[in-house]
UniProtKB/TrEMBL annotation:
SUPFAM superfamilies assigned to the protein according to its UniProt record, in alphabetical order: Cobalamin (vitamin B12)-binding domain, Radical SAM enzymes
Cofactors required: [4Fe-4S] cluster
Pfam family, one: Radical_SAM
GO MF terms held by the record: 4 iron, 4 sulfur cluster binding; catalytic activity; cobalamin binding; metal ion binding
Database matches in PANTHER family: ANAEROBIC MAGNESIUM-PROTOPORPHYRIN IX MONOMETHYL ESTER CYCLASE-RELATED (PTHR43409), BLL1977 PROTEIN (PTHR43409:SF7)
Superkingdom, natural source: Bacteria
Keyword line: Iron, Iron-sulfur, Metal-binding, Methyltransferase, S-adenosyl-L-methionine, Transferase
Gene3D superfamilies referenced in this protein's UniProt entry, alphabetically: Cobalamin-binding domain, tm_1862 like domain
Record keyword Coiled coil present: no
Name of the featured protein: B12-binding domain-containing radical SAM protein
B12-binding domain location: 2-142
Keyword Iron-sulfur (UniProt): yes
Source organism: Candidatus Geothrix skivensis
Amino acid sequence: MKKKVVLFFPETHLSRAEDGWCLPPFSLLAIAGPLLQEGYEVVLVDGRLVPDFLERVQGESANAICLGISVLTGNQIRQALELSAAIKERFPDLPVVWGGYHPTLLPDQTIANPLVDVVVRGQGELTFKRLVQALASGASLRGIPGLSFKEPGRIVCNDEAPFTDVNEFPPMPFSLVDLSRHLPDLGFARRTLSYVTSQGCPHHCEFCAESTAYKVRWSGLAPARVAQDLEALLGRCEADGVILVDNNFFVNEERVQGICREILRRGLSFKWAAQGRADRVASLSDETFALLKQSGFTVFHVGAESGSDAQLEQVSKRSSRQTTIDCARAVKAHGLHISFGFIFGFPGETEADIQQNFSLMEEVTDIQGSYDCIYHFYAPSPGSPMLEASVQRGAEDHPLLEDWIGYNTSRGITSWVDAAYIDRIRWRTDFVYAYARPNFMLRQRLAGSPARRLLYYPLHVINRLRYRLKFYAFPLDWWIYRTLRGVW
Ligand code: B12
Ligand code: SF4
C-alpha cells in the first residue's frame, strides 16, 4: 500500500528575496503531525525556499497517495494553480487536495476549478488524516465531514466537520523544516522563532476572514503544552525571540498567565510578542502585565483598525477610539511596547474618517514616544459580509478562483484605493510620522549606511516641525526623497 503524502506551501506575495517574514508553514506542519503518527511518510516542499519546486514535487509524486497544497487568498493561488496543472499533466490520477483559508472561505468556487480534486474545509488535522486513509484504501469520501470533492459528473459537499479542541492534536513536527531559514530579525529580537498557540477567534469583525473561516470559535493550547513546545523548539535553534502569530492570543487571561508562569518555571529566556484586541489588552490585570513582563514579553500587536467610532461600528469591531487610547496608556504604564494596526479604505470612508485615523496614530505615538503603527488597505475578504457591500460600491467581483490572485491588503484592490490615495497615506505615515517620531527599527536601519544617516537628520528636523505644527501640506521633501531614493 502507498504510504507517502506530498505537501506543498506556495510562494506568498512577498518575493523570495524580500521575504524577511518567512515563517514556517504551520498549516502543513499541523496536518503532517497526525499523518506521521499513523506511520505515513510526509514530504514537505516550500515554494518560497525551493526554486525548482516543480521538479521536486513531481519527483516525489510518482508513488504518493495525494498532493496537499495550502492556500491563502492572493498570490499563493498563482503557484498553487501552476503546480496543480503540472501535476495533473504528469500524474492525472494523483488527487490534488487544496486546504487552508482560501478554499475554506470559497469551497464551491475552488472545487469548481478543474485542477482541484478535493477541498478540505476548516481545521485540517483530522479531516486530512481521514481523507488520506480513505484514498490509500480506496474507501468512499462521502462519510468524511469537511470535504468537498468531485465524483464523475458532479461535485459533492459533505457536512461541516466539528470544531476540535487544538489540545487533541499532536505537536507540529518541526523536524520537517529547517528552522534556521525561519528566524527573521523583527526588531524586538534578532532571531525570532514563530509559533502559534490557538486557532480561530471568538469575535466577528466584518472585514476579517476569521468569522467566516472558523465561525466565531476559538481553541487554545494549554499553558504546559505551549511552554513544552517552545522549550523543544528553542533547543533546536539559536533564537532570542518568539512571535506568536495567533489571531487573538489574549482571549483567555487565565491561559495567558499560565503560559507566563510555565515560561518562568522552566527558566526559558527569550523576548516575545503576540497579537490581540485593544479592549482585551486594556483590561488585563496588573498581575498579568507583571507576569508578561517577567517572562520576557516585549511587544503587543493590536488591531486598532480605525480612529473613527462610526467606522468601528460599521465593521462590527466592538471597540472604540477611546479603548485604543486606554490600551496604549495601560501598556505604557507597565513599561511595555505596542504596535497598532490600522486599515485605510473601508467602503464609504469619508475624509473625516481618514483624519481621525491620522489623529489617533498621532495620539498613540505621543503616548508611546515613537511611531509604531502599521497599516493595510481594505480588501474585501472572500466570503465576508462586507464583500457584497463593497461590490455594490464598485469593488471588483471575483467569479473565478484565479481572479483572487491579485488580492493584497498591502496595496489594496478596490477602485477607491488608487495610486494617489496610497501615496497620500504613505507620505503621512511611513514618511512624516516615521521621521518625526522614529522608532528603534528605523533608527537601526538608518545607522547602517552613511548616506542614509546624512539624509536622516534634515528629514527628521523638517518632519518633527510638521508634526508639532500639524502642518501637512506641500510635501516637497517627500518628492525630493522619492527622487533621491533610486540613488542610494
Ligand atoms: C503567518 C501568516 C501569514 C504569512 C504566510 C504564512 C506563513 N506561514 O508564512 C504571510 C505574512 C506571508 C501572510 C500573508 C498574507 N496573509 Co496571513 N496570516 C498568517 C497567520 C498570522 C498565521 C497562519 C498560520 O500559519 N496559522 C496556523 C495554521 C495551523 O492554521 P491554518 O493556516 O488555518 O491551517 C489550518 C487549516 O486552514 C487547514 N489547512 C491549511 N492548509 C492546508 C492544506 C491542506 C492540504 C489541508 C488538507 C488543510 C490545510 O489545516 C490547518 C490545521 O488546522 C494568519 C492568522 C492565523 N493566526 O491563522 C494570517 C491570515 C491567514 N492571513 C490573512 C491575510 C489577509 C493575509 C494576506 C492576504 C495579507 C496581505 N498582505 O495581503 C497575505 C496573503 C499571502 C498570499 N496569498 O500571498 C488572513 C486571511 C487570509 C485569507 N483570506 O486567506 C489571516 C487569517 C489573518 C486574519 N485574521 O485576517 N500571512
Ligand atoms: S479582526 Fe481580530 S478580533 Fe476581529 S475577528 Fe479578526 S482576528 Fe478576531
